[in-house]
């Protein structure tokens, strides 16, 4: 990096704060950038850090107080290309010692002379080194999934709890199950007294939360909860001394994480931020946003090739299985394309989309065409036809969502979606009318209804039909899971399997298929809490926690999950991961894959449909993941994603 580009904690944010003196360690609180890094390795994080500092390099000495007295020597970052410590370069700061007048408010000078690290767990060098840095600087910790980010957070939180006897320590996680999980983990690791700990939820009355903020010191919550309390003035923002942000890659745009940090900085600059993520972003711009939004001045990154990580990571074998669409699904697809043709031809006649094959369009292209139409409508199109064109665009978007479901998840998911349009309360008035006037649509729905509708919805109720699948990937998944359990049962030891699918309909279908093989396969679904607009009722937080506990303890050996199971949840040791759909987001792919290979070698099976899904960039990149899951940070390009 350019030697002239220097910044401290809050310069990467851009706020013009008053000068604050640093402690008597002087420049030891910032470290030199890693000059010896291989230019081809880990450039994304390094370049993002440089860019986040660039805009503020000429602001002058607006430094932040990093005055936490410890026994840490503040060693410079290593030059090992897989074991990286990146931070702001040494910045000209005052060398005045920490005096009674500039000690951070509430800082215990006696407790602050040292920091505590637990030895009741095996001491891992990389965790010890990262904690030492995170205590002194706002730090982004990027570790492969399952290698102890929660442990690092617990140690940092405990030390701030000790250093500031009246201060508040806050742990934010994006979902309620993650919040509940972290409470137990932090208590078990560091033993923060439970009488000082509180879980804050949106279901708790504001008056009760106000009381808890005053009485407790360590808080576990979602960002929406603390944001609401900051807005009401019930959260004592000036007392917050440590803010831990789990799954920090979400801190882009106007995410609640960003709102919380922006609100806190209005009250105080005297708080430490620790950001945790296995996947900080899919491209430079995304990583740069996260670094800036969270006031990050230092990055600790380890890959599975890092020397201090290798003893604790295990090989992940990645298999991509390409599944042909099959004659039956191909026939359904052909009829569905005829339905699409009607709407696409209307849009072509109005001159608002390109003249290309119907199957080459996607929701993204339809959205882009609609935006172009709104910005620059064709000059020969009469204004009184604009409403009709808007209606056709809306219908096309609905139909192409169904087209995606058909190809990736099968005819059952398509039927459930279309049936929801016809009988749901989502406001599909014009769409419903247009579809019911289409002869091909009615024929297709009759065919799907006969195959998939519940018995009381079918015209004939002769006898109960055997369970039928909606996509050939279902049979392949069933075979993969059965082969895995049969192989393990022939040897010693228990095994667990986790299956991911983007949509609840597929989760339900997979679960029902595998239930036929009980007790060999003891399967349970795991979905989010939301029920609005869903065909399947969501799980309550209590139900989610119970499923996780039962899965860890062996009550189930197979978990079929939506994206709610991708991030951070402690679901125990998993030997096989099956991805029913190859998600376009590299972050979510890496999160899924990180569920296995924690205690022993793991296997990841990617099921992809022949054709578009097989050609997807995410599918092509997956072959690299068994060598190094860090590809998401290094090489992935931004994709248009649903």
From TrEMBL:
The GO terms this record gives for MF are: 3'-5' DNA helicase activity; ATP binding; four-way junction DNA binding; four-way junction helicase activity; hydrolase activity
Record has Nucleotide-binding as a keyword: yes
Record keyword ATP-binding present: yes
Location comes to: Nucleus
Q: Where is the composition biased (Basic and acidic residues)?
A: 68-78
Q: Which InterPro entries match?
A: DEAD/DEAH_box_helicase_dom, FANCM/Mph1-like_ID, FANCM_DEXDc, Helicase_ATP-bd, Helicase_C-like, P-loop_NTPase
SUPFAM superfamilies per record: P-loop containing nucleoside triphosphate hydrolases
Identify the keywords attached in UniProt to this record, alphabetized. ATP-binding, Helicase, Hydrolase, Nucleotide-binding, Nucleus
Domain Helicase ATP-binding intervals:
130-298
**Region of interest called Disordered, as start-end residue ranges on this chain:** 1-30, 55-79
Q: Name one GO biological process term.
A: double-strand break repair via synthesis-dependent strand annealing
Highest taxon in the source lineage? Eukaryota
CDD domains named in the record: DEXDc_FANCM (cd18033), FANCM_ID (cd12091), SF2_C_FANCM_Hef (cd18801)
> Where mainly found?
nucleus
Q: Which PROSITE patterns match?
A: HELICASE_ATP_BIND_1, HELICASE_CTER
| Pfam families associated with the record | DEAD, Helicase_C
Example GO CC term: the record gives:
nucleus
Residue ranges of every copy of the Helicase C-terminal domain listed in the record: 476-642
Q: Which family does it belong to?
A: Belongs to the DEAD box helicase family. DEAH subfamily. FANCM sub-subfamily.
- This chain's protein is named Fanconi anemia group M protein
**Species assigned in the record:** Mytilus galloprovincialis
Q: What is the lineage of its organism?
A: Eukaryota, Metazoa, Spiralia, Lophotrochozoa, Mollusca
